[in-house]
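Lecture 7 notes. Example A: sequence first, then its structure tokens.
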Amino acid sequence: MLSQQGPFSHQRRVAWLFLAPSLFLYTLYVLFPILFTFYLSFTDWDGLGSEVLPLCVVDPELSCFENYRELMDDEQFWVSVKNTVYWLLFYPLAAVVGLAFALLFHVKGVLTPFYKSLLFSPMVLSLVVVGTIWSWFLQPHFGLAEFLLKQVGLLDPEGQVGIMASFDYATFGVILAACWPHAAYCMVLYLAGLSNLQQNVIEAARIDGVSRWQMIWHIVLPMLRPATLIVALVTFIGSMRAFDIIMVMTAGGPAGSTHVLGTYMYEQTFQSFRYGYGAAISIVLFLLSLGLIVSYLAATGEKNRAR
């Protein structure tokens, strides 16, 4: 019995044998790129040279942390950080909209399936298509948004919708476009959560004369906590990996005002051929994501222990 339970028992060897291919691929395509990115962040590699040397080897007067020092003085980097924070703050509004639609259409009706399908339709579109549609929608001169605002009198006949050309508001235009399909996804997640509610608790609350808002706030929302945790996680991931819709709608413009850390890293790496500097930006993004994830897990863990 002791030999069978030892660290090199036959069962353990067989288990490691089956795990070996997956571990090899995970190491090759996940762990190695992460470690290599850390190394690149201390280099001055342009992506074309045959050797990757640390900055202190290329030039003894420079420090290996030169990329990180440059980040501290890079105005565009701080604009990207600010926009990343905007995504973290305003992208979750899509989850609130999704919850509202889920509560609205959870009630059975003749046209409820049609409305659900209509609201879910943006989710089947890729973000490239979503970005293109919203670029047309917000386009000055012939965009639908400008036309509708003029029809209802909220915009002068000679006025223009210049959201995507504004240094201050273009980021919010992109976030609004990204919220459209994400709200549909959150609605589906909350509808799944609503279908698993404890109906006996709901019926007991109705018998006790609980109002609709009290029912939602004190009974429905607490029972939707598992769905809310999933929605919060996917929303956080979506806000941190915002890339394609930004590239389609603004490509980081105007004048870099809509860059987030992901798009600025791409620009520096593959357009400016500063692989070391781009790697440093990716490390900052990685550490920011890691810190937020650890904080999120710690907060949810405290709540679970409290319950």
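Example B, a different protein, same format:
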Amino acid sequence: MPASTWQGERTPDLLRPRHAAGHARVTYIELFFDLVFVFAVTQLSHSLLKDPTVSGAIHTLVLFLAVWWVWIYTTWVTNWLDPDKTPVRLLLVALMLAGLVLSASIPEAFGAKGLPYAAAHVVMQVGRSAFMIWALGKAHPGNRRNFQRITFWLGLAGLFWIAGGFADEQARLGWWSLGLAVEYIAPSVGFATPGLGRSLSRDWDVEGAHMAERCGLFIIIALGESVLVTGATFAELAWTPAAVAAFVLAFTSSVALWWVYFDKGAETASAKIAAAADPGRTARLVYTYIHLLIVGGIIVSAVADDLVLAHPNAGAEGSAMAIILGGTAIYLSGNVLFKWATYGRLPLSHLAGLAALVLLAWPAPQLTTLVLGGATTLVLVLVAVWEAISLRRGTPAASHFEIE
């Protein structure tokens, strides 16, 4: 996703203008594009809910990693391109169409629709990168060379994706895992390419505040999906006391998830990346990689809410226990890393929350899903309250453990 700085050169027509004061706003077409990923996130949560086995979890994980990578690469590209320009808008519309095919294929991606899923993924990844090469033209040879490297790596990964689309289910997982590995390793090695060299993070001229806002909006999308799942499931149930209690817990959990991320963390991270000496490195670590855990935790938590709503009196054992505790644990772990990378400190409230979840695993098999869901929600609320009170008192040492 890197592109070297164009400051001091004539800005090509399709690139965003950079302003000394303020940051590039998120445009309506970018938000419109994100609607496709509301569908994708819904499909992912439903896939895990339908098959909450180890195999189903692995398949959902592979598809989630792929969906996130498509979205974050597009976010990097629109950090440089101006979405108000007609060719860029047409690019995003074309990516939306391919994204709908990709999202619609998710439930049967490891079945009959493996090839359509793989083809949509490759078209989005390679096509978007090729567009950047054309958009940059000869005005910025450094940027163009970077996207030639990116296209090489995405094209290489695409071979594995297409091969997996033709393979049977067991072999497909192996091929697609190789494709994911190529795509995820590429940024960390600077997209090193024979004959083209590699790029450095300091060359990645990223508009930090825009990147932070885009990722924050994706968190909203994921949280919105969990609210949709909660509302849709509750609407179809008989409103028994157990169902109403599960509904209130699910809503409270969504609010606590929002609070933990947005109360202070998102704003602080935006300011940090905007002022960073090497914003490309920060964007790669914090928003490209660490946010995976945060979004993944929200998706698994949405599945947990649906499980509790549908079966509040069932035993919380096996996959139900793993999903209910795991969603919250993944989310808190992502926020621990997010705030550590932002503040340089580990948030004690989050670490205490993770410790509480570990302790809950002991009695969990003897509890109902409603009771275990209530306990995890209480943990989230306490984490949010602890951090909020500590930060508002202006005593970060009380809420964070500094790492030397």
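Note on Example B: The first strand starts at residue 345 and ends at 347. The radius of gyration is 22 Å.
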